[in-house]
Amino acid sequence: MLSHFHNFAKSQNFLIGASLVRISIALLLLYHYLIHYFQRYFLWSDSGVNVYEPKEAAFSLYNFNNSLAYFDLIYHLGIIVTIIYLLGYKGRIISIINYIFYFSLYNRTVHISDGGDNLLIICMLFLLFANTTAYFSLDAKKHQERLKANKTSFFKDISMIFHNFAVLACIIQLCVVYFFSGGSFK
Amino acid sequence: MLKSKGRTIILKSLIIFLAILLIFHFCITTLHSGPINPISVKFKPFTDKYVDNFFRQSWHLFAPEPLTNNYTMFVQVKLRNNNTESEWYNITDPLVRANNDSVFTPYNRMLRVGLGYINSYNLGVTDVLTVKIMNKSLEKSDDTSRYDELAEITQSEVEKVLYRYASSYAKKIYDEKDIDKIRILINSTEAVPYSKRNDKEYQPEENFTTLEWKELNNNVVAFP
């Protein structure tokens, strides 16, 4: 059984699914950024409804300056990074940058966010370790070329192990949500 | 050969390490977000610290105790000109209607931010879980001073934000220069219980809270 698990952890699993998740998340983030475009100052800026004390507030790129121009700069950069993430360019690096931008906005969503945002930000963190650009992306060609060459390497194995555990963590997290929200009554 | 064996050991160790980490992480998550029990209360300081920045989550909203009150927020403006008082403007209902008009709408979150703060103002704390824990501790002791102290601090903080919200709305209706003061009225109406859904005579309980006149907050943008 252990050797089965070992083989499973090293092999290429969930690559199409992870790529589809990347596209879904990117579309959701874009929707989130764009649908609130004209309400952005009110909802998230220092001139908005919430009060942010820089020393007490959770990490956010928006905390470094309270001017609306700086807020706009970070907000628009966030949109651009999300579009690159959607296109699937430079997989893990863009994933990390995209996570930092959205995490910054998420930490400013006092009384605005819901369970969906909560689940999204947790899964986005797990997916930083996953390969989400193997399919339907600008990086997909590289992945196909590597597949054709059929080369295995030590670092590729490590990468796949992290990928498989990351996807597994997302699946378990989803189970936790529905188990505790619906299944575990008093 | 030796190199290959060394790599296999590293890969196997990594798999074991990640498997243990995965189990550990979800044990903590389970303690943090599961139903309250003696174990989760005992480990709360550790689990709270662990989940604090990246894994904070609460799935208590769906069940078994959904919210039981509907809140409406009104704002009244005292104008500089002749010290006249405006009518009470209902902030909540137009947002509810705008939100219900379309699936794709920004008003969902606009509405949520106001109602979230009103809910915190009435609860006296910011989350439902803390209310539960406080109520459990009150069952064991009659000393309500800690609860009252926490409620007072939270209400004072939340009140500041409610006035920002109301100031923003007032700035949408009137020119900033014309506004002298504003005040807020919160209406809390009990939801009709399921067992009374067909009872046309049933009158849900209503409560009104009027907050005092305060200066307009100039540091907030006009309501979009």
TrEMBL record, chain A:
<feature type="transmembrane region" description="Helical">
    <location>
        <begin position="68"/>
        <end position="89"/>
    </location>
</feature>
<protein>
    <submittedName>
        <fullName>Thioredoxin</fullName>
    </submittedName>
</protein>
<feature type="transmembrane region" description="Helical">
    <location>
        <begin position="119"/>
        <end position="138"/>
    </location>
</feature>
<keyword id="KW-1133">Transmembrane helix</keyword>
<feature type="transmembrane region" description="Helical">
    <location>
        <begin position="96"/>
        <end position="113"/>
    </location>
</feature>
<feature type="transmembrane region" description="Helical">
    <location>
        <begin position="158"/>
        <end position="180"/>
    </location>
</feature>
<keyword id="KW-0472">Membrane</keyword>
<dbReference type="InterPro" id="IPR052964">
    <property type="entry name" value="Sporulation_signal_mat"/>
</dbReference>
<keyword id="KW-0812">Transmembrane</keyword>
<feature type="transmembrane region" description="Helical">
    <location>
        <begin position="12"/>
        <end position="34"/>
    </location>
</feature>
TrEMBL record, chain B:
<dbReference type="Pfam" id="PF19136">
    <property type="entry name" value="DUF5819"/>
</dbReference>
<protein>
    <submittedName>
        <fullName>Uncharacterized protein</fullName>
    </submittedName>
</protein>
<dbReference type="InterPro" id="IPR043857">
    <property type="entry name" value="DUF5819"/>
</dbReference>
